[in-house]
Amino acid sequence: MAEESGEKSHDATPHRRQQAREQGQVAYSQDLGSAALLLVGVLVLSYYGYGVIDHVMLFMERQLSTGGGSLVTDDRELIVISDSVLKTFGVGMLPILGVMTVAGALSTVLQIGLLFVPDKIQPDLSRLSPLAGLKRIFSLQGVVKLGFGMIKILIVCAVAATVIQGRWNELVYASELDLPDLARLLIDVIFATALWVGATLFALALLDYGFQKWKFEQDLMMTHQEIREEMKNMQGDPQIIARRRQIQRQMALNRIGDKVPKADVVVTNPTELAIAIQYDPETMAAPVVVAKGAGVIAQRIRKLALENNIPVVERKPLAQLLYKEVDVNRPIPDQSYGAVAEVLAYVYQLKGKKMPALRTA
């Protein structure tokens, strides 16, 4: 009933997955990239940022003071000093920004791999429609996304409040600290809060990616009719394929009809396989497999053998070996000489003839 109603009950085929990827349809979570970028940025800043801040503060202290210890008051000199401070700060931040850029790129590549879709670069004017935007906002997916966003905000606020609560006593007595110590305390609290918030967002983003992956797989699932249409497009019409196979089978049967009557013996398995063997010591160096087949063709070979008074001998291991290892119109291999000679000797004995000696192929 599911197949008749068109329900998507089959996993996506590799061809369907490839088509979806070429169209830019992949499992991707924007939250995972943002959370990874935030978490890596906080970790790098907590490890490397203090050195940058101390370096900039020391540089500012030196630049803003004259040799006698008085502050610089000239506007032009202040502009020059500020420019130097910004350059120093910028150079110090380059490694941090570089690591964050690499982390952002990796978060995308690890999710979807290397993918370039030119169609996605082109502007889509339909997305500028206010009506389409309202439909996206008030759709089921939009409502779910909004709800998840609200829950995420509440969780982040709870985590931040918990971290600050743990450092509350330090913050209460912060007014008694000197300005440098106060600044360092505030920076510690900010980094600790940002680190826990980043870790929380990353965990929530992993859940979001899992949901996006599940939804992507559900959207890719196919109906029975879609699978049939795909097979038809890739391999051709099943009726044409069946007709082609029927013609090939008929041609094989016609060839068998010419070859089997000339054989000396037919070796069977006993019903699944049939191999027709011919041996003419004057023209052949070794016995030759003139016809072989399984199923319907094997039945045809046995029928022709009986109609032409050709002995049918049951030898299961020999039939399996010849069917698997020897092509039609090819001599039998050396390792099968003994078994084939035994069969031929039995056949010649039935006919009252002397068995000719087998020569090496």
Features:
361 residues; five-stranded mixed sheet; single chain; alpha+beta; 2 domains; cell projection; name from scop
The oligomerization state is single chain
Low-pLDDT stretches:
1-5, 66-70
Query: What fraction, in percent, of the residue positions are helical?
Result: 55-70%
**What number of structural domains do the residues give?**
2
Protein name: Flagellar biosynthetic protein FlhB
Membrane topology: Multi-pass membrane protein
Keywords: Bacterial flagellum biogenesis, Bacterial flagellum protein export, Cell membrane, Cell projection, Cilium, Flagellum, Membrane, Protein transport, Transmembrane, Transmembrane helix, Transport
Main location: membrane
Summarize the structure.
By secondary structure, this protein is of the alpha+beta class. The model is unreliable at about 1-5 and about 65-70 (pLDDT under 50).
Can you put this structure into words, describing what you see?
- It comes from Lacipirellula limnantheis.
- Belongs to the type III secretion exporter family.
- InterPro entries: FlhB (IPR006136), T3SS_substrate_exporter (IPR006135), T3SS_substrate_exporter_C (IPR029025).
- It is a multi-pass membrane protein.
- Its main location: membrane.
- With 361 residues, the protein is of the alpha+beta class.
- It has two domains: 196 residues, no CATH class; 111 residues, name from scop (3-Layer(aba) Sandwich), CATH 3.40.1690.
- It is built from 13 helices and five strands.
- A five-stranded mixed beta sheet has the order 4-1-2-3-5, with helices on both faces.
- A hairpin with a 4-residue loop joins strand 1 and strand 2.
- Helix 2 runs antiparallel to helix 8 and helix 10 runs parallel beside helix 11.
- The longest helix has 42 residues.
- It is elongated and about 125 Å long.
- The chain starts with 13 loop residues before the first helix and ends in a 10-residue tail after the last helix.
